[in-house]
Known about the structure:
8-stranded mixed β-sheet, 5-stranded mixed β-sheet, 20 helices
Amino acid sequence: VAPKTILCTNAAAKLVGQPWNRVTIGLALDALRQDAPLAPGSPGGMCEFRASLMKAFLFKLYVVSWKDDASTMPAAASGLDAADLSADDATGPNRREPSTSAQYHRLQRDSGTNAISSTALGQELTHASAEMQTTGEAHYIDDIPLPPNTGHAALVLSTKARAIVKAVDAAPALSMDGVLGYFDNSHIPPGGERHVGPVVHDEPVFVAVGEETTCVGQVIGVVVAETREIARAAAASVLVTYDEDASKPPIVSIKAAIDAKSFYDNFCAEIRCGDADAALSGAKDGVRVLEGELNMGGQEHFYLETHQNICIPGEANSEITHIASSQALTKHQKSISDVLNMPASRVICKNKRIGGGFGGKECRSVTFAVPCAVAAHALRRPVKLVLERDEDVLTSGHRHAFHCKYRVGFRDDGTLVALDAALYANAGNSLDLSGAIVQRALLHIDGCYRFPNVTVRGFPCKTNIPSNTAFRGFGGPQGIFFMESIIDRVARSLGMDGVKLREFNMYRNGDKAHFGQTFEDVSHLQACWDHVKASSDFTRRHEAALEFNRANRWRKRALGMMPTKFGISFTTKFLNQGGALVHIYTDGTVLVSHGGVEMGQGLHTKMAQVCAAKLGVEASKVSVLETSTDKVPNTSPTAASASSDLYGGAVVDACNQLLDRLGPYLSKNDGDLAKAALAAHLDRVDLSAHGFYATPDIGGVGTEKPL
């Protein structure tokens, strides 16, 4: 509720000297609002919940004290009845033992030997790095042994959300022992790009003197020193002065952006089907209409490994190797190439694994990679940049907060007729991927329900907060949340069970979504729904929760069901491709390189299993060492829930090429890959293959099959 313990003097004044009864406690509860006011938007969020929690604790004290003194305090004086007793969770049906469960694994066995198979696809193999991660032996960026003469970097960040940088004085930093240099916009090589961005280049690499900051946390410069501690101290000593214009206050919230009409206009979107306006004005046709507004807040990615980079210049300073905690190494390669004015073929970006990403390291990581590369290029020595957690949270963006204004039309029997909605996303100070995130929210706003008439519009709001970015679901969760909230409101207005309303309106085979795609086979949707409902004993448990709620005024239980659809692909068509490189060695072991990034999800393990299954060897014979742009070029981000499909398909393609070459040798050596590989090598047969896969039957946004 507050950053420190506070005394609730107003509430205390209502209690002192007064009878201990329901009237007194009611006055004290009201007074708590004065003692700890929580305005909307207060730090920490969840303001309504926190305010109600304060009152709940005081009321719980009242109930407990009445129960303890029931022999001396008449029940009528307390103002409580049996339903109020649920405020005390020390006794009764509110107490339950901790839940327990068991997870069962079905192991696949070889038909001949009955031994557990490590080649069968679908076998539940241990994550290839599990033991090393458990013991702390797995290497992340901060664990990599550094080359000699490596400098350590720290960023100089803006402290004003909207102001002109008047001057930057780096002299205090440069005078400190151990400081190697201060680098800013002036150190970008001639011809190098000064702005970066995944869709449009609207983010300055460094905010230069005379330019405007557009959020707190923008990079103004970077200090490099002999140690990380010296670099951070030096960066903190850099003096930045600003010129603020009181007539141009920062735009922070979605509401302020709507009022100011501050949008990324070229990336607003609209989807229409049928005639929503006509359907929603058709009260004479028995259509009931609800309208309202909904909000969904943002979310911090909080991956365990913060943004980290190591940049190592090559000979003659004409090439650079970049090791990055990134989901999108090709984006790093292109951005560093553009800013250093260096051919992409001379920029190698790679990693072995990263400590989580969740979308937060798809594009935002470029913001930190490029300044690190500029410093390394200018110094002609390796530079390492590791963000502290507070810097990472401040600068790297979050899930987009959304606001939804809607009108929904429906009939008395629950049939959904029309939806008109406007979705506003807080994009932040640069476009990043906000246009595509808003598009995906619009593609998911229908949930799993038929609407014959839909008009939905999306607006990325331009604000003065650090740019928000990709996050698991990429706009899909926001769209689904809004629809499920609307469904609940429709159900309440009809006095209809929400589960039945959902079942009644779910997509069936042959239905067409509002974005034009026909669902040729969604029978699995109903089958999955029925299975979950039956296996969870939903009906009985739901009724038990309702009965509990009828008997308990303050403590409630709930159980719900909702269906979910998600488009597993990039809505930008060209990104739906993947490559892989497979080498077979003469001892029968295999090395796989592919374009996907391992970030804890087990992608490398799955690719090794795909390869093992295809070549007919044990998974232990297959290694996946790292992802690197000099092994597999022009990669798509590891995102969109598509990487196993993309890179698995590419690995299969490469293995098929190798099997075609090895066919005669495998036949002569009873399928033994090691013997076949050696024989083929002696016959001068190539044992390396590049595979490629492109997702078929997909069109991207603007087509009838965008997902």
